Every structure is written in structure tokens, then in C-alpha cells.
Amino acid sequence: MSPGFASADHADVTAVVVTYQSGAGVGDLLESLHRESRFVALHVVVVDNDSTDDTAAVVATFPGVEFVPAGGNTGYAAAVNLGTARAGASPAVLVLNPDAVVAPGCVGALLAALREPGVVAVVPSLTDATGAVSHSLRREPRLVATAVDAAVGHYLPHRPRWSSETVRDPLAYSISHDIEWATGAAVMIDAGVARAAGPWDENFFLYSEETDYFRRLRRLGRIRFVPEAVVTHLGAGSGTSQPLQDLLTVNKIRYAEKHHGRLWATVFRGLIVTAELARSSAPHHRATLRVVLDRSRWRGLPRARRRPPTADAGSGTVVIPAHDEAAVLAATLAPLSRLARTGTVEVIVACNGCTDGTADLARSVPGITVLETDAASKTDAMNAADATAMFWPRLYLDADIVVTPRAVLDVLAAVRGGVLAARPPFVYDTRHASLPVRRFYAARSRVPEFSRHLWGAGCYALGETGHRRLGRFPDVVADDVVVDGLFTAGEKTVVDTDPVVVAVPRTVRALVAVLSRSLRGNAAVPRTTDARSSLSTLARSVRGPVSALDAAVYVAIATAGRVAARRDRGWVRDETSRG
Fold it and tell me: Do 288 and 366 fall into the same domain?
């Protein structure tokens, strides 16, 4: 047989590959499948869960591969269902992770085993990058095994088979035999059986969907392990993060509740709590424990997100990093909720190191997606939100800044229209500030230099191209200054729309502390403004005694801020503007 991929109606096997940000590895998988097509008629379907990297471009270099956009990040199970629907008359479906490589002869060996009487599905031997056999075989979750796993974890790997869900016996990986289930990196299913079993359960999104599907397959026949069929699985194809770790644990509980009685599922959940509690010295286990104990947090776990059915003029994502912002967040989210509920924009609140009710408040607002990370780091929270966000462009909004829906839509539209970065205009709210603070901001407002950059408004938007220039947000205080420095004047703009209102410190002492913090943050990034030029512009703005007084107050307070910055007292947040 000449190498080349077949159509669905003329293939022995349809391979379904689910991708998400898989450009770095999917090419190796497709190349290995291309080699297999010399011996088995293969139809290959790649279902992409809204990747923003070069996944589509890599797949396009393989003629005959059917590329299917999932219409959003729909989850693993939903994407498998979409790919399986493209199998046509193929008698078998091979589901593969994108970070796998099929060894020579693997597909043929799996297909031969699938044709044995009573066999409904087959799985290969998985190896890691070093060639070592992975412990991919599993037993159905049982309370005793879960209890032992909770007590000893990965220790005592050679304990009795009844005391562990993972099969670790070397003999089990050297001979062909019937199994209960296996990790879902690679499985071949008889197409007729797949139709009888029904679709993969899309409620799981990611993790435990294969446990559930294998359970249904076992009711229809035997599942066979085929050691002579080998797939190298590099792992981490779905990425790793705290939300995904939480989802992995929660979906085990969801599986127990779906297939067992209330008492069994309650005991199982208690064992999971015990396991996380025993390991709670580690921050990620403490975070998972909080999620397992509080069902209201389950709504904020990664879930299927589909693009709106029509390309609305304002579609995009708003990212709000929040650290202990319960006092101000409700006002920020109120105008955004309707945009989120209608699917016009995606709104993600990335809670980082919160010890107050920020996360619970965000969850109470309809349409809002909530992420939680342990570290009190704004840029880490923004990177975590970027890892789960679906849409471009993205507006990054401080949690204490109120922006109108019109401003959100106008700024996102401007970025889609060609500029790489944009923000709305801003005005200072000095109503509750002391007289010297009001005079300081009156002078500052007369310096055009301060209104031409992306910083100062507490929000800015980036398109996909502009964000690619940034990469990940660096660990700095002045993220807006960093972003501003990436673009020339012609690549960024201030959009003519509703201004955001920036609440200012109420007292001189608080203002000096804020200026000190800003100066220390700005010192870590390239200078974007020339202080001497700004002072020169300020001097030229003097038109009488009032503006002269404003300029004098500005210079005095700015000088005090520079003196305070040399003391390096760490990060300070102004609480006076949050009253």
C-alpha cells in the first residue's frame, strides 16, 4: 500500500486526535501515522479545541488530514465525539493524544487484536521518552484501594493488587490480557461498539471521561491490552496548572457520584479529603482541599467554552487579576456581567493569594469565570488566565477600575481593527481627596505625556499578535509599563470612548506611598517617559497663580515620592481610595 491518508469511507481505521496548543508535538504524531499508512488504510481527523499557537499550520503540512475546529475549548470528550462522527464507514476508531508517537506496526497490531471474538476495544503499551514502560493500566475505583492510596500515595509501589487503582505488576505489561481500563492516551474501539456505547460524557470536560467510557465498553465486551503495540506518550499534553489539578480530583468524585450510591460516594469523597489533608503542607494540595470541601468552587473549574454562534462585534476576553479585592470587585463586575452572560465577552477573575471573600463574591456574579492561585502575584494570575482564556483580543483590567460596556466593546473593536494594543481614556476621581492631592492631579492632568501611554488607566487590551510579542507576563510590578514599552506610537492607541474612572489616594501620605511604589516598579523596566521633559511641559502649562500653585504642589509631592522610593519598603496598596 502506498503511503497516504485515506478518506473515511475507504479506511480501516479513523484516527481521532484532539489538540489544544499542540503545535510542538502533533507533527511527530502525524508523521508516525503517515508511516503506518503504508500498511493500514488510515483516515486522520484532528479536532482542535481553539488553539492559539501554530497547531493548525502544522496539521496543514500533512495532506489528507481532516482538520476540524471544535468551535471553542469544548473539552476532550466533546472533541472525541466530534471526531468520531467523522469516521464514516471506518470499522475502527483510534483515539490518540497529540503528544504521542505511534511505533511501527502499532496500528496493525491493535487492529488484529480488535478482530478477536468478543473484543470491543484494545489499548497499546505506553512508554515514556526514555523507552520505559508506563503504568497505564488501571482498575475500577474501589473504596479499599482509594483508602490505601490516600494513606501511602506513591510509596510502597509493589503492594497487593487490591490496594491500588494503578496496575504495577511488571508481568501485566508483558502479556496480552483483558483489563478494566487504561489511561486514555491511546485506545482503539470497534466502530459498531462505539455507536452502541454512545458518546463520551462531555460533563467531565477533562479527566475521568475515559474511566466512564471504559466502564460502558466493559458492558459490551472485553477490553484487551496489546503489549506488542507500542505508543510513546510524552505526557503533559493538556498542560499543568492548579485549576487542572483541582479538576482531576473533583472529577474522580463526580465519577463516583454518577456510578455509585450516595453512601459509597460520600465515603469516597471523604477519602479524597483525607488524602489532600494528609498532604496539605504543600500549597497545591491545600488549594485542592479547599475546592473539594466547597462545592461552590466547582463552578469555577475549567469547563467547556464555546464561541458565540455569531461573531459579535465585541467578542473577546476580559481578565481581572484580583488580590483581596472584595471591597471593590462588585462595582467592577456589575457592568460586565451582562456582557458575560450573553456570551459577548468572556470575563475571568483570576484570584491570587486571596484571604478574603473575593472568589466567593466573583462566583456570585452571573457569567463570571473564577480562577484561584495560591501565590499573591498579579502577573502569575494573568498568565493563569491566559492559559484558559478562549478569545482574542484580551482586556486586562485592574479589580478596582470600573469600565462601561461601551468602553470594553470599543477598545476590543479597535484592537481587532488593526492596532496591537489599546486602552480607553481615563479621568481622575478626586472628589474625596484632600486639597493638596486634588491640586497634584490637576497639574498632572495638564501634562499630555501622561495620557499617551497604555499605563495610567488600570486597563489595556492586547490582540493576539501584540500578545505574542509579550509572551508571558514577567514578574514585575509595573506590567502596564512593560507592555507599553513593547509598542511604537503607531502600534497603540487611546480609543475615543467612555473613560474609566481612576480613584486616587485621599491623603498626601497615601499618595506619596503610591508614587514610591510606582517608581520602584518602573525602575525594573525601560523608561517610557522623560521626567525632565514632563517637568518642562508642566512648567509651560502655568498660566496664572492657580496653575503655578498646582505645579509647585506636584513637584513637592513627586519629590517626596522619589525620596520614599529609595527606602524600598516593599509593595504597598492604597486603601484610602477603596472606601
Answer: no
Contact of 264 with 395, CB cutoff 8 Å:
no
Give the CA distances from residue 505 to residues 384, 403, 454, 571, in Å, rounded to whole numbers and listed in that order: 30, 19, 21, 16
What was the pLDDT predicted at 313?
44
Residue 402 lies in a domain: no
Coil vs helix vs strand at 319: strand
Residue type, 226: V
pLDDT the model gives residue 257: 92
pLDDT of residue 240: 58
Whether residue 134 sits in one domain with residue 116: yes
Would residue 170 count as lying in a domain? yes
**Cβ atoms 381, 370 nearer than 8 A:** no
CB 381 within 8 A of CB 353: no
Domain boundary among 202, 233, 264: 233
pLDDT at residue 456, as a whole number = 84
pTM of this prediction exceeds 0.70: no
The helix (H) or strand (E) run that includes residue 72 is strand 72-73
Q: Is 1 within a domain? A: no
CA-wise closest residue to 413 among 526, 311, 556: 311
Least confident of 15-29, 414-428, 443-457: 443-457
Whether the per-residue pLDDT at 372 is higher than 70: the answer is yes
C-beta of residue 372 within 8 angstroms of C-beta of residue 323:
no
- The CA distance from 469 to 198, in Å, is 44
Coil/strand/helix, residue 282: coil
The set of cell numbers assigned to 261 is 450510591
Condensed to tens digits (0 to 9), the pLDDT of residues 316-366 reads 999 999 999 998 999 999 999 888 887 789 999 999 989 898 988 998 888
Same domain, 578 and 469: yes
Domain count, the chain: 4
Domain range for 35 is 8-233
Amino acid identity, residue 424? P
Query: Looking at residues 162-181, what average pLDDT do you find?
Result: 89
State the CATH number of the domain containing residue 212: 3.90.550.10
Query: Is 569 found in the same domain as 421?
Result: yes
Q: Which residue, 56, 52, 57, 44, is CA-closest to 17?
A: 44
Cell numbers 506590567: residue: 479
Is residue 401 in some structural domain? no
Do 123 and 252 fall into the same domain? no
Residue 47's H or E segment, with its range, is: strand 42-48
Residues 419 and 488 in one domain: yes
